[in-house]
Amino acid sequence: MCSKSSSAAESGRKIPLRKGAQIIVDTLIELGVDTMFGYCGGVVLPLFDRLYDAPINFIVPRHEQGGCHMADAYARANGKVGVVVATSGPGACNLVTGLATAMMDSVPVVALTGQVRTELIGNDAFQEADITGITRPITKHNCIAKDVRNLSRIVREAFYIASTGRPGPVLIDIPVDVEVAECPAGVLDEIDLPGYRIRTKGNARQISRAAEAINKAQRPVLYVGGGVIIANASEILNKLADKANIPVTTTLLGLGSFDQNKPHSLDMLGMHGSAYANYAVQECDLLIAVGARFDDRITGKLKAFAPGAKIVHVDIDPSSISKNVRVDIPVVGDAKDILAELIKEVKHQPRKKWFDKIAEWKKKFPFSYDRKKSSIKPQYVIEELCRQTEGKAIITTGVGQNQMWAAQFYRFSRPRQFISSGGLGTMGFGLPAAIGAQVARPDETVVDIDGEHGFNMTMIELATAVEHKLPVKVCIMNNGYMGMVRQWQELFYNKRYSKSYLANPEYAKVAEALGAVGMTVDKKTDVPKAIGDMLAQKRPCVVDFKIDREENVWPMVPAGASLNEMDGLDMLESLA
């Protein structure tokens, strides 16, 4: 950048100088950043001083991990790049869980971390940590900016890398002397990344092969992941399913990519997916995977996964192709572009026998629970929440039973409506994610469906929501246990509930102490009114639902079993 200004300097014109911190802020504004999350500290003071006058909405969390989750959910909710700032040492290290979460779920986040002065790096200086070394395995790219002349280019490259191809987090570590160093303001260099190439257009021959396979298939299934949402391909996916007459199942992070209210929906598949989705995958003759990566929670026993199916895999990341499951027809490229081409070649097929079989499974094994019990069933809470919000709320979750019940009993109809930690399974994600989503979508109703153990980890971020007047709602499914751990201990460890129970606070009082609304619900008859009162609040609200203490998530594919070897089917069948 600065080299292009040298000729102007030689000609006698005076070149204005900018400090590194100002260059960062100017570049962020140039890139359209209007919201950031982060926590101040010694070596990022120059940056925060420049942010003081910047037209950027800045949200300060109560902990850097919360801030990183907020930036992550902000990106998931609106498709922009989330930006988080942290100081050196412990501040930067506190981003690790958030960055790993974003990496596993392909979320575009740019983290700006401060670093000690360049000459002190490697000398164990106060609050020094090798954050680029620490985060190398959990970021898509990271670097340390040691020359103020490269700052603008590095920031622009970070945004480009984070948001293109298979998205992911990028970290830039910035020594404090680089933040205060000066550089002439000059012409911006073009981004030049010779080793970074993204293939968006799929191979025409492979697309035709995929279309031919679809037209010949008698029992096809579309298996859809979060990549469809990332690619903004949900609309074309729905059109493809309708035209080719193919049932659709989604991963956890694919929820919302296909309207679950449509008859073609098989809902979610996998360990706690629907029985009808799992049976359909196991008996299909063609599986069309789009923007999904065949992770272990989806496939179950790999050798027994979709045993009679030819497999088509559409993905922008070539390294995902045949990584876990051998693929017959790979198509590398952008899902939206490829589906648009594919839809031109597919034909409508009636497939009556296939849909009749699926209808039998749906009737026999629906998601269900014992509605006659007087205790509060978590599934009932979520069904009632879905009814009162008309299925239109943005839902964030923690991890565990609460996450699975939300995925099973809330009906998602549009992309970027379900925000949850998938690959890493990060407890504590739900509340800060709700805050990030609410910042991104201020006019939407945002509800965190959480478990008490996960809520415990980041509940102090409720103060952040209160400070910024963000009306997030929290439904705590409180059974006193670390629910999914307890379920596994019940099923596989002889009910030896070792350390899965904790004494918890009165969450309503905690919420009130932090400036939010707090409610406690311990009677089933009070659930509808409590949800209505919660949704009517104009400020943050926490409702502590005292649910059935030993309720389990069904169905369940045990570890090492195949998708058609599900526990809990007898119970579901009896409740159908």
Brief digest:
The protein is α/β, with parallel strands linked by helices and 576 residues long.
Structure description:
By secondary structure, this protein is of the alpha/beta class. Helix 14 (about 295-300) links the parallel strand 12 (about 285-290) and strand 13. Helix 2 packs across helix 3, helix 10 (about 205-215) crosses helix 15 and helix 17 (about 380-390) packs across helix 18. The longest helix is centred in the first third of the chain and has 15 residues, at about 65-80. It starts with 5 loop residues before the first helix and ends with a helix.
Total strands: 20
Task: Tell me roughly what share of residues is in helical segments.
Answer: 25-40%
Tally of helical segments: 25
Biggest sheet statistics: 6 strands, parallel
Low-confidence stretches: 1-10
CATH topology of the largest domain: Rossmann fold
Q: CATH superfamily of the largest domain, please?
A: Thiamin diphosphate (ThDP)-binding fold, Pyr/PP domains
CATH architecture field of the largest domain: 3-Layer(aba) Sandwich
Give the termini distance in whole angstroms.
67 Å
Please give the order of strands in the largest beta sheet: 3-2-4-5-7-6
Average pLDDT, to the nearest integer? 96
Query: Given the C-alpha coordinates, what overall shape results?
Result: globular
Q: Briefly, what CATH class of the largest domain? A: Alpha Beta
Provide the gyration radius in Å: 25 Å
Which range does the strand content fall in? Answer: 15-25%
- SSE-based structural type: alpha/beta
Number of domains: 3
